[in-house]
Amino acid sequence: MPALPQDPAQWLVAAMIANAVLVLPMALLVRRDFVRLGRVSWPMAIWTGATMHGHALASFVLAFVDRGGLYTPGPLSLTGGTGVFLLGAFVIYLGRRAYGDQARVYGLKEDVLIEHGIYRRSRNPQYLGYGLMFLGAALAGGSGLALVFTLVFAGLVHLYIRYVEEPHLTRIFGGAYTEYCQRVGRYFRV
């Protein structure tokens, strides 16, 4: 029997890989919910929330545990990374504020196409904000592992948006969503 990892970073990497692998069945089940219910079911809302927040927590801890893995953090990287992190947190706040209802955040309510607030500049501010927070933590800590998992997160989220969320929103809101997509960038448009 292989020995269990002793290094906390190895545990975090294993957990993040498992989380990334579990995103595929989660995405398929969310897609099924969208087709059957027109929204996300409670169990899937819990799973998607746990996946997102679990990845966030693991990313922040990994950036600390692996600090200096890519470069030695200094005042510039700490300041810049903290700034990127805080910008991401602010973008998430603006997105949730524009939603006006926590049920919309987790896909439990699909009754209105949100086009005000930060949604005039980004169709996906929640994902953009989390990505910025992960990147900020990686930069502040000089963590190569946290940077890799930021890129993994960005890739998985892009695929999820492209193949699960956007087809659903097109089905629900039709031409209004298509027109919105032409005006507003998937992640950001000035």
Brief summary:
The chain is an all-alpha fold and 190 residues long.
What does this structure look like?
- This protein has 190 residues and is mainly alpha-helical.
- 73% of the residues lie in helices and 0% in strands.
- The chain contains seven helices and no strands.
- Helix 2 packs parallel to helix 5, helix 5 runs antiparallel to helix 6 and helix 6 packs across helix 7.
- It is globular.
- The mean pLDDT is 91.
Structural class: mainly alpha
Distance from first to last alpha carbon: 55 Å
> Low-confidence stretches at least 5 residues in length (pLDDT < 50)?
none
What percentage of residues falls in helices of 4 or more residues? over 70%
- Order of helices and strands, N to C? HHHHHHH
Mean pLDDT, all residues:
91
What does the overall shape look like?
globular
Q: DSSP helix count?
A: 7
**Strand percentage:** under 5%
Please describe the topology of this protein.
Blueprint: H1 8-37, H2 42-65, H3 75-99, H4 102-105, H5 125-141, H6 144-173, H7 175-183
Helix pairs in contact: 1-2, 1-6, 2-5, 2-6, 3-5, 5-6, 6-7
